[in-house]
Amino acid sequence: MIDTLAIYEKLKDKMDPAAAESIAEVIGSAFTQFQDSISERWFRTLYEETTALRQEVEERFARVEDAIAKLVQVTERHSLEIAELREATQRNTEAIAELREATQRNTEAIAELREMTQRNTEAIAELRQMVRENTEAIAELREATQRNTEAIAELRGATQRNTEAIAELRQMVRENTQAIAELRAAVRELTATTQRLEADQQD
Asked: Is this model's pTM higher than 0.90 or not?
């Protein structure tokens, strides 16, 4: 009896296992029939079946080779795509690291800006207080200036009156001076006349 399992084990490494199993079964069956009855018709049938089976196996093997070739091409494309993806991933990783560093710097800058804003807010509050105080002081100064303006106007009026009075007094002084000079001249003349009269009487 033929060992179909051994035949199958030898064929399955060279072709599709299902085809190898079929061939082994056919060979086993043929060998059994050969043992039972050797005839030309049986050999012809065995040849035809074996030829058809071999053709089917070859077609299947060709399809398998074509599928393997396509699979290799797809695998190569996938390998290129994976390499590109790895390179892109590396670039993205570096970009993310840069973004993280920039974000850290921005966070620190924002913290500094917040601190500066707080200081500016406090400074603005102080300036507003100073502006209010200055506004009140300006209002007081305006009021005092108004009072001073009024006082100056009054002083100008008084000065104008005093100036006029002084002018009048100067005029009076001049007139008085002239009158005194005339009186002195008259007194001198009277004195001289008196002295002459006294001298005439003594004579």
From this structure: no
